[in-house]
User: Which sequence fits this backbone?
Protein backbone atom coordinates (compact mmCIF):
# COMPACT_ATOMS: atom_id res chain seq x y z
CA UNK A 1 0.00 0.00 0.00
CA UNK A 2 1.30 3.44 -0.90
CA UNK A 3 1.27 5.86 2.03
CA UNK A 4 1.00 9.62 1.53
CA UNK A 5 3.86 11.88 2.51
CA UNK A 6 1.47 13.94 4.66
CA UNK A 7 0.49 10.88 6.69
CA UNK A 8 4.15 9.94 7.19
CA UNK A 9 4.90 13.52 8.24
CA UNK A 10 2.00 13.52 10.72
CA UNK A 11 3.12 10.22 12.29
CA UNK A 12 6.72 11.44 12.44
CA UNK A 13 5.67 14.65 14.24
CA UNK A 14 3.64 12.67 16.77
CA UNK A 15 6.25 9.99 17.46
CA UNK A 16 9.65 11.56 16.58
CA UNK A 17 10.57 8.33 14.75
CA UNK A 18 12.49 8.24 11.49
CA UNK A 19 10.80 8.70 8.12
CA UNK A 20 11.48 5.14 6.98
CA UNK A 21 10.25 3.68 10.27
CA UNK A 22 7.05 5.72 10.01
CA UNK A 23 6.52 4.66 6.40
CA UNK A 24 7.02 0.97 7.21
CA UNK A 25 4.70 1.17 10.22
CA UNK A 26 1.99 2.90 8.18
CA UNK A 27 2.30 0.33 5.40
CA UNK A 28 2.07 -2.48 7.95
CA UNK A 29 -0.96 -0.82 9.57
CA UNK A 30 -2.72 -0.28 6.25
CA UNK A 31 -2.59 3.49 6.62
CA UNK A 32 -4.17 3.52 10.10
CA UNK A 33 -2.36 6.16 12.17
CA UNK A 34 -3.27 4.69 15.58
CA UNK A 35 -2.20 1.16 14.60
CA UNK A 36 1.05 2.58 13.22
CA UNK A 37 1.73 4.32 16.56
CA UNK A 38 1.24 1.02 18.38
CA UNK A 39 3.59 -0.75 15.96
CA UNK A 40 6.26 1.92 16.48
CA UNK A 41 5.80 1.74 20.27
CA UNK A 42 6.24 -2.06 20.19
CA UNK A 43 9.37 -1.73 18.04
CA UNK A 44 10.72 0.91 20.42
CA UNK A 45 10.28 -1.46 23.38
CA UNK A 46 12.10 -4.21 21.47
CA UNK A 47 14.98 -1.88 20.57
CA UNK A 48 15.27 -0.62 24.16
CA UNK A 49 15.33 -4.20 25.46
CA UNK A 50 18.15 -5.15 23.09
CA UNK A 51 20.23 -2.15 24.13
CA UNK A 52 19.65 -2.45 27.88
CA UNK A 53 22.77 -4.56 28.45
CA UNK A 54 25.18 -2.10 26.86
CA UNK A 55 27.70 -0.18 28.98
CA UNK A 56 26.81 3.44 29.66
CA UNK A 57 29.93 5.38 30.62
CA UNK A 58 29.11 8.82 29.21
CA UNK A 59 26.28 11.15 30.06
CA UNK A 60 25.21 14.38 31.62
CA UNK A 61 24.64 15.95 35.01
CA UNK A 62 21.54 18.12 34.91
CA UNK A 63 20.85 20.82 37.51
CA UNK A 64 17.39 22.30 37.92
CA UNK A 65 16.42 25.10 40.29
CA UNK A 66 12.70 25.77 40.53
CA UNK A 67 11.29 29.30 40.40
CA UNK A 68 11.73 30.98 43.78
CA UNK A 69 14.87 28.96 44.53
CA UNK A 70 13.15 26.73 47.11
CA UNK A 71 13.54 23.39 45.25
CA UNK A 72 16.61 22.09 43.43
CA UNK A 73 17.53 18.85 41.67
CA UNK A 74 20.82 17.26 40.61
CA UNK A 75 20.40 14.39 38.17
CA UNK A 76 22.83 12.00 36.46
CA UNK A 77 21.72 10.34 33.21
CA UNK A 78 24.16 8.07 31.39
CA UNK A 79 24.45 7.04 27.75
CA UNK A 80 26.96 5.14 25.61
CA UNK A 81 28.72 8.01 23.82
CA UNK A 82 29.72 11.60 24.38
CA UNK A 83 28.08 12.44 21.06
CA UNK A 84 24.65 11.43 22.41
CA UNK A 85 25.30 13.24 25.71
CA UNK A 86 25.40 16.47 23.70
CA UNK A 87 22.37 15.57 21.57
CA UNK A 88 19.45 18.01 21.72
CA UNK A 89 16.88 15.27 22.45
CA UNK A 90 19.02 13.81 25.23
CA UNK A 91 19.50 17.26 26.77
CA UNK A 92 15.75 17.95 26.62
CA UNK A 93 15.10 14.58 28.28
CA UNK A 94 17.46 15.33 31.18
CA UNK A 95 15.85 18.74 31.72
CA UNK A 96 12.37 17.24 31.64
CA UNK A 97 13.31 14.49 34.10
CA UNK A 98 14.95 16.97 36.49
CA UNK A 99 11.77 19.07 36.40
CA UNK A 100 9.71 15.89 36.98
CA UNK A 101 11.77 15.12 40.08
CA UNK A 102 11.28 18.65 41.40
CA UNK A 103 7.52 18.50 40.83
CA UNK A 104 6.65 14.89 41.71
CA UNK A 105 9.19 14.22 44.49
CA UNK A 106 10.04 10.55 43.77
CA UNK A 107 12.12 8.66 46.32
CA UNK A 108 13.42 5.88 44.03
CA UNK A 109 14.27 5.50 40.36
CA UNK A 110 12.65 2.09 39.83
CA UNK A 111 10.52 -0.34 41.82
CA UNK A 112 13.41 -2.75 42.32
CA UNK A 113 15.12 -0.16 44.54
CA UNK A 114 12.31 -0.01 47.10
CA UNK A 115 13.37 -1.85 50.28
CA UNK A 116 11.26 -4.84 51.30
CA UNK A 117 10.75 -3.30 54.77
CA UNK A 118 9.02 -0.31 53.16
CA UNK A 119 6.83 -2.54 51.01
CA UNK A 120 5.79 -4.71 53.95
CA UNK A 121 3.70 -1.84 55.35
CA UNK A 122 2.06 -0.96 52.00
CA UNK A 123 -1.28 -2.44 50.94
CA UNK A 124 -1.61 -0.90 47.47
CA UNK A 125 1.86 -1.47 46.05
CA UNK A 126 1.07 -0.33 42.49
CA UNK A 127 -0.17 3.03 43.78
CA UNK A 128 2.96 3.32 45.93
CA UNK A 129 5.21 2.62 42.92
CA UNK A 130 3.38 5.22 40.79
CA UNK A 131 3.79 7.82 43.52
CA UNK A 132 7.37 7.11 44.64
CA UNK A 133 9.27 5.50 41.71
CA UNK A 134 10.41 7.94 39.03
CA UNK A 135 10.08 5.51 36.10
CA UNK A 136 6.50 4.63 37.10
CA UNK A 137 5.28 8.23 37.46
CA UNK A 138 3.09 9.86 34.82
CA UNK A 139 5.16 12.43 32.94
CA UNK A 140 4.16 15.94 34.10
CA UNK A 141 4.17 17.33 30.53
CA UNK A 142 2.11 14.42 29.13
CA UNK A 143 0.24 12.37 31.77
CA UNK A 144 -0.67 9.76 29.12
CA UNK A 145 2.88 8.37 29.28
CA UNK A 146 5.21 7.45 32.11
CA UNK A 147 8.85 8.47 32.50
CA UNK A 148 9.74 4.90 31.50
CA UNK A 149 7.76 5.32 28.25
CA UNK A 150 9.56 8.61 27.59
CA UNK A 151 12.93 6.96 28.23
CA UNK A 152 12.08 3.99 26.00
CA UNK A 153 11.05 6.24 23.13
CA UNK A 154 14.32 8.17 23.46
CA UNK A 155 16.37 4.95 23.41
CA UNK A 156 14.50 3.83 20.28
CA UNK A 157 15.00 7.19 18.59
CA UNK A 158 18.69 7.70 19.46
CA UNK A 159 19.74 4.05 19.26
CA UNK A 160 21.83 3.92 22.43
CA UNK A 161 21.23 2.59 25.91
CA UNK A 162 20.26 5.39 28.30
CA UNK A 163 20.05 4.98 32.09
CA UNK A 164 18.85 7.34 34.79
CA UNK A 165 21.66 6.66 37.27
CA UNK A 166 20.84 8.79 40.34
CA UNK A 167 19.33 12.01 41.59
CA UNK A 168 19.12 14.25 44.63
CA UNK A 169 16.23 16.56 45.35
CA UNK A 170 16.64 19.47 47.73
CA UNK A 171 13.86 21.54 49.26
CA UNK A 172 14.38 24.42 51.66
CA UNK A 173 13.27 23.45 55.18
CA UNK A 174 12.78 19.74 54.37
CA UNK A 175 15.18 16.98 55.45
Assistant:
Amino acid sequence: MAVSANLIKELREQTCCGVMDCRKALEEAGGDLEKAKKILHKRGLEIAEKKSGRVVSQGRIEAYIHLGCKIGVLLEVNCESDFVAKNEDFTKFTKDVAMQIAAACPKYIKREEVPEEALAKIEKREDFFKAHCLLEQPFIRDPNITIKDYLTSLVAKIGENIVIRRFSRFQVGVE
Q: What stands out?
A: Helices lie at 5-15, 19-28, 33-51, 82-85, 88-104, 116-120, 125-132, 147-158.
